[in-house]
Amino acid sequence: MARRYVVTGRNGQVAQSLIERVERHSEIEIIPLARPDLDLADIETIERALTEARPELIISAAAYTAVDQAESDAAKAFLVNGAAINEISRVAAKLNVPIVHLSTDYVFNGNKTSPYHESDPVAPLCVYGQSKLEGERRLIASGADYVILRTAWVYSPFNKNFLRTMLHLAASRDELHVVADQYGNPTSALDIADAILTVADNLLSSRDGRLRGIFHMAGSGEASWADFASGILRISAEMGGPSAIVHPIPTAQYPTPARRPNNSRLDCGKLESIHGIRLPNWQIATATTLQRLLAGGAG
Prior knowledge:
The protein is of the alpha/beta class. It contains 9 helices and 12 strands. It has a domain at about 5-160 and about 185-220 and about 265-280: 3-Layer(aba) Sandwich (Rossmann fold). Helix 3 (about 75-95) links the parallel strand 3 and strand 4. The radius of gyration is 19 Å and the shape is globular. The protein starts with a strand and ends in a 5-residue tail after the last helix.
């Protein structure tokens, strides 16, 4: 009998990656729950949808992720990223099943000059980060058996993301201007899916408390957005895809409604030492994603 994992959302990058990756695991069944059956903006739908799905583990992957839009839509951001996570956590505790919840590097303010550890103080600069932190706190207080995985700069062959945007822009422009004073860890959603499946197996296989709590989970290696763009387009050109010259610019020349941390690099050593997981270098993972996209394998 296959293990039943419920994942919130169906069309998000991580949900789609999980649905694809689980094809390698005959012992696991992924059950995606999304609107209208489970609507994070309609709290009343959550308990019934989760209970009827009979999960052995819940993967909380869906979120309000429109970082700039959240500044003018804070109520919905906190509803989806805070109150809905509180309800999912409550139901997980009631059903006595573990929950793996995705959070973000944007819970930090970026003032630290080195990568962030799980124990570092949180102080999000924007509504999106504040709402995701609220979800973390609600989950921790719920009494559920949980793992929080903070990740960063997610891209994949699916949906809208930075990598696909750079490819699209390079197809029609010779030069791009990209922010060069914000640093983080580009992370493949397909690698995130693989890591989640390992964490889930660990949780169901052991009651060891060290396996629980908050972990940082991001691609190996660091980059600025300009570095990431340059890497994407260099690799794309090597594969015969679109390319453009990337001009680094400061954040001040590309103002956005939401403030973003200048440094949101994550130290992922805890995840490696306790769960045995180290995500691939972002340049390797980027090449894998580009190879698929340029071959026509977009989601």
